[in-house]
Amino acid sequence: MHILFLTNEYPYKNEAHGGIGTFIKFLAEQLIENNIKISVLGVYNIQEDETYKLNKIDVYRLKISKWKFAKFYDHKIRILKCIKEIHKKKQIDIIEGSELNFAFFPYKSSYKKVIRLHGGHHFFASEEQRKVNNWKAYQEKISFKKADNFVAVSNYVGYKTKRLLKNNFTYTTIYNSIDLRPFYKSSYNKEHLYKLLFVGTVCYKKGIDSLIDAIPIIKKKYPNVVLEIIGRDWVDNNGNSYTGLLKKRIKDIDKHNIKFTGSIPYKDIPRRLEEAQLCVYPSISESFGLTLIEGMAMGKAIIASNIKPFNEIVGNSNSVLFFKPNSKEDISEKVVHLFSDHKKRLELIEKSRKHILECFDSDSILEDNISFYKSILR
Length: 378
Hints:
The chain is of the alpha/beta class.
């Protein structure tokens, strides 16, 4: 079996990368160990096309188009050409991509086209209550019509996407496989008193603005509270930095309580998690919640927004203290509560790691993926 992953987020060497890149890398390396050939193809902000082998995986990185207009068309032509060349070397059985990836693919192909739903344009536009971009919406609808099979990373993202697209496709839910090996049981002695930690992309949907707004309220009870924000910055099409936007809303009196660290190597994340007394995940929209799982795998006390994907994945574990999304008052109340209640914090710590180790066994999730791939080829 030969599977090609279409993604623009596959990590390059030790570069920082987001949740989808982390997931694909781990799954691809697991599949390789099970004698399944893996290739990865995507468009990146690089000057020249490059091809290399990383951990037995063939990686093809295409340079971003220099066209002033219709870059998508240039990308489409070069992607399909590269797929044809890869297919000649070793027959491709399955191409897996995101919600928009197959918009410009042929309807019929010798390989199966699989969409893994991590949350597409319709989904996040609805979750964030913003207008749908007509061009992206069109691409997504066409992409779903051309795909052969579908995997959802949560029941919620599958159900809601199906409803929004008014498309009666059938999907299989398989939770993201997670490499738990780097995430050890953290030591209480390494915690920094009154330190909060957020890990994730610094963008609107992560709800960081509400977390920042909660700091002045928390300071009334705990003046030494420190919030560290770790993650890559989100820059819009006009070059505006979301981190820059957030910094503008912080008053001078609160600046020493809030630290923007930016991206760090993935291997350093566990140590930074260990240093936090509380990990906070204030997202207003998610399809899964990889960074939340990583925090729990470290055995940290976790507070998170009460959104449906988080509830679906860990809501029955009683190991997370939930708050209302977009509520600085509720965030501050939960933080103060856990800073004050040592017993409750220890209770969450004991339950969180245990739940993740029991429910996110990577071998079991891998078998689900392999079974799915085999089933669509039969």
